[in-house]
Amino acid sequence: MKESWRWYGPLDRIGLGEILQTGASGIVTALHEIPYGEIWPRQTIAARKAEIAAAGMDWGVVESLPIHERIKRGEGDLSALFANYRQSMANLAAEGITTICYNFMPLLDWTRTDLAAPVATGGTCLRFSAPKMAALELYMLGRDAAREDYPCEVITAAERWFQASSDDDRGLLMHSVMAGLPGAYDRYDADGLKAALKLYDGLDRSALRDNYMRFLEKIIPAAEDLGMRLCVHPDDPPRDILGLPRIVSDADDIGWILGAVDSPANGLTLCAGSLGANPANDVPAIARRFASRIWFAHLRNVRKDADGSFEEAAHLSGDTDMVELVAALLDEEARRREAGDEDWEIPFRPDHGHELLDDAGRNTHPGYPLIGRMRGLAELRGVIAGLSYGQKELG
Predict the structure, then answer these.
(1) Annotated catalytic, 101?
(2) How do the pLDDT tens digits run along the chain, 395 residues long?
């Protein structure tokens, strides 16, 4: 498996020289400064690739080439947006970058209510509190329909939190929820979020699936022609939020997507943390079921609570059996090698780490500290080495 690292380019407070010291050889990045829907110029791609190469690494995976929200809403004439997406893919392919991670989550990317929840052994982690999210929906946004989306005990806890909260507490909650948006894009306050949500009125699960199918039909044939692999990232969290449907949350959803346009170019980013936040998901089983279409992996772990809350755990100590999951990915790599596939190696990156030691105060992108992720990478490296040694012994 190829050790990789997410880098936010000029927006990142962690430099390429520091990343090289972690041992990672692959960079996962994007042109975050370019607004959604605009073409990524080939010369800009080439310059970013050269910058990474000069630091001793290679740009292996794009994360993400974002999908414009109008495509997700199915709004108006989308031909120019589809054409721009295809041209950006062509420009990436011309520079030898052929793996694209993307998501189809409406409006918001990954969502957390706490960016610095304390960890028992020290440090902080990202956390999703179901009561806090319910409080935001019910009492800050006035979305009464949210009462149908949460258990009674969560609604009670949400009211209790809201009554005890200050304006600063509520502001921090909104800031935390907005933090999952990558790059330099607009964030919302409560009124802005209400206005943005109105654009999605009437968008149910069926309509979002239709819009996704349209995207796949317009884009995957071009990806095939270019020799590219698109790999969808699961929803994070894997549940409807803010009244918006999520359609990449479990094995059934993944099966529908990969079958909708049945092509190797239509693949999966196996995100252990996103899928692991759904109690119904057996992540290693999902990995084995869809192994032949996994082109990229995010390896992280979560610890779930009974009320639907969860938080980022250390990479080897959460609810998902990470050793079993890595074994599934190594088995798939072995299958590809035996089949003569030259591109058999699966790139992975250590995802959301704890803020540890000198991470505090660096003000990196939430969930993307240096030391916490380096710890995760080292742990995963050890698992991979041990399992790979075992494969050799058995061989």
Answers:
(1) no
(2) 999 999 999 889 999 999 999 999 999 999 999 999 999 999 999 999 999 999 999 999 999 899 999 999 999 999 999 999 999 999 999 999 999 999 999 998 899 999 999 999 999 999 999 999 999 999 999 999 999 999 999 999 999 999 999 999 999 999 999 887 655 456 788 888 899 899 999 999 999 999 999 999 999 999 999 999 999 999 999 999 999 999 999 999 999 999 999 999 999 999 999 999 999 999 999 999 999 999 999 999 999 999 999 999 999 999 999 999 999 999 999 999 999 998 999 999 999 999 999 999 899 999 999 999 999 999 999 999 999 987 666 65
* From 233, 235, 236, 359, active-site residue: 233
pTM of the model: 0.94
- Parse the chain into domains and list their residue ranges: 2-110+202-394, 114-198
233 is catalytic: yes
CB 210 within 8 A of CB 75: no
Active-site choice (8, 85, 102, 368): 368
Coil vs helix vs strand at 199: coil
Q: Which of 109, 114, 250, 351 is catalytic?
A: 351
Instruction: Give the integer Cα–Cα distance in Å for 346 and 326.
Output: 11
List the catalytic residue out of 298, 315, 354, 359.
298
Q: Which of 299, 305, 279 is nearest to 349 (CA)?
A: 299
- Among this protein's residues, is 36 annotated catalytic? no
Q: What is the distance between the terminal CA atoms of the chain, rounded to a whole angstrom?
A: 18
- Fold classification of 2-110+202-394 is TIM Barrel (3.20.20)
368 a catalytic residue = yes
271 is annotated as an active-site residue: yes
Please give the order of strands across the beta sheet that includes 301-304.
114-118, 124-128, 310-313, 301-304
| Of 127, 149, 129, 146, residue with least CA distance to 137 | 146
Residues 85, 101, 235, 352: which is the catalytic one?
A: 352
User: Is 68 tagged catalytic?
Assistant: no
Spot the catalytic one: 8, 114, 271, 315: 271
